[in-house]
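A quick aside before the break. I want you to see a complete sequence-to-structure record at least once, exactly as it would be stored in a machine-readable document. Don't worry about memorizing anything.
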Amino acid sequence: MNSLSVVVPTYNERKRLPKTLAGIVSYLEKLKIDSEIIISDSASTDGTLEYVGNFKSKIPIVIVKDKVRLGKGSGVKKGILAAKKEWVLFMDADNSTPIDEVEKLMPYLDDNQVVIGSRYKGLEAERKQGVVRRAVSRLGNLFIGHITHLDFKDTQCGFKIFRHDAAHNIFSRLKTKGWGFDVEVLMLAQQLGYRIAEVPVLWRDAAGSHLRAGRDSIETLVEVMKVARLVKNNKNDEN
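That is the input. The structure line, written in tokens, reads:
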């Protein structure tokens, strides 16, 4: 890896972002490669962008933003398409998977264009989710696998890295604006013929999540059903 863009989608992350951003900057400085940080904000109102604007860093920090909140998928897409480095990583602002976990993905970069972190494959999370949230998550992944035929243990982990050309090719086609975007990304990646590796990463259940286990999980599953039809129909149209 010669260069790296780190994309962090944000929405009202003023309380959680400082630790995450400081950790990213510190790690990239030690890594000593050409790098940039992209904060992709979805209309925060809590001072998130003011904090980022005043943050002092030797690593370039780029801000891209939506004027209205469109969803996590929209934020990640905008950040990815703004990235300019050889590899593009997106990670969550809550630092649930810290930046140094990218070292576990690095050995797979030569043979794959997409490498995704997994909370459920081979390693246990450092801090357990609550029973309800864990059950919803596991059942959701089973349902996603059933209707999309994606053979991954964890499609929803917010820690994924893409080769630059693959990132732009995939995300330029992305239509899902909400929580279900990960599924469309992986379906598109497979449809486009990219090699994908799934690698266990450390994950912590961070406090203050914007994801509501009940309502947002249902909305995600509805999105996933729409995504599955959309991607399959596009594939049929191309054939």
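Two observations worth writing down. The beta strands are 3-10, 34-42, 61-66, 87-91, 114-118, 159-163, 196-200. The radius of gyration is 17 Å. We'll return to this after the break.
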